[in-house]
Amino acid sequence: MFEKIRNWRLRRSIARHPIDESLWLGALQRCTSARRLGASDQATLRMLATAFLERKSLEPTRDLQLEDADRVLIAAHACVPILKLGMDWYDGWRSIIVYPDAFIPRRPQTDAAGVVHQTSTMLAGEAWGRGPVILSLANVLNVDRKPGHNVVIHEMAHKLDMLNGDANGFPPLHRRMDRRVWSQVFSSAWDHLRDEQRNGADLPLDPYALESPAEFFAVASEQFFESPATLRQHLPEVYRQLELFYRQHPL
Q: pLDDT tens for residues 73-100?
């Protein structure tokens, strides 16, 4: 009964606040992973994107003018990972802060000697626990220029990872998934890519994946949706685990 009520509310909100047809077609043209979907899945994605825009607050900064087309594109990218999971997987947070370009978060960091420094790393995106997602609009709009990369999917993967605590590359798995297999597959892939990196080989994933298990999961998720053939060719067991988790088959 609860599921029926929830679906009824979703359909009602979609009927009241539909995404304009031209805006949706424009988003599909700029969202590779969405273009790959069949008509039925694209229709579901549109419903989710509509609900996403109603439930989440997209907040531009620095006098950025966030156009409707930008909002719809962000929503389309954001809902690709939850196409088969549902909007409930994005519960617990509300805001997406959008910068016009890459940004530098200002936060104190203490080094080994106890000296406090201000971080100065430039970022394209960031996700905070139960807080907001932060995105660079320039990076969102330039997704197609870097095959296998998608800053929105990357940050949404972090959000999914955080559903059961800190981001650690171990999101809440479905009932029939084996935690031991997940751990073994990702650990083995991590070790293999570390060895490849030390040997100077070109990696099939962005080397940023090796920053931490959380980044490995997020980067692998980007590639799963954006360049699935590459991920399946080079890391077939990781690809299979992501198929099970996202309940999608992008190839």
A: 999 999 999 999 999 999 999 999 999 8
Q: Are 71 and 56 in contact (CB under 8 A)?
A: no
- In sequence order, which residues have a C-beta less than 8 Å from that of residue 229 and are 6 or more positions away? 251
- Which tens digit of pLDDT belongs to each residue from 54-79? 999 999 998 899 999 999 999 999 99
Residue 135 pairs in a beta bridge with: 98, 125
Kind and range of the H or E element at 135? strand 133-136
Measured CA to CA, the distance from residue 82 to residue 135 in angstroms comes to 18
pLDDT for position 103:
72
CB 151 within 8 A of CB 139: yes
- Count CB atoms within 10 A of the CB of residue 107: 9
* Beta-bridge partners for 60: 98
Stretch 178-198: mean pLDDT, rounded? 97
Instruction: Region of 43 please: left (phi>0), alpha (psi -120 to 50) or beta.
Output: alpha
What pTM was computed for the model?
0.89
Instruction: Please give the structure tokens belonging to residue 39.
Output: 């008509």
Q: CB within 8 A of 87, min separation 6: which ones?
A: 10, 48, 51, 52, 55
DSSP class of 57: E
Closest of 74, 81, 87 to residue 14, by C-alpha: 87
What is the spatial distance between Cα 126 and Cα 167, in angstroms, rounded to a whole number?
12
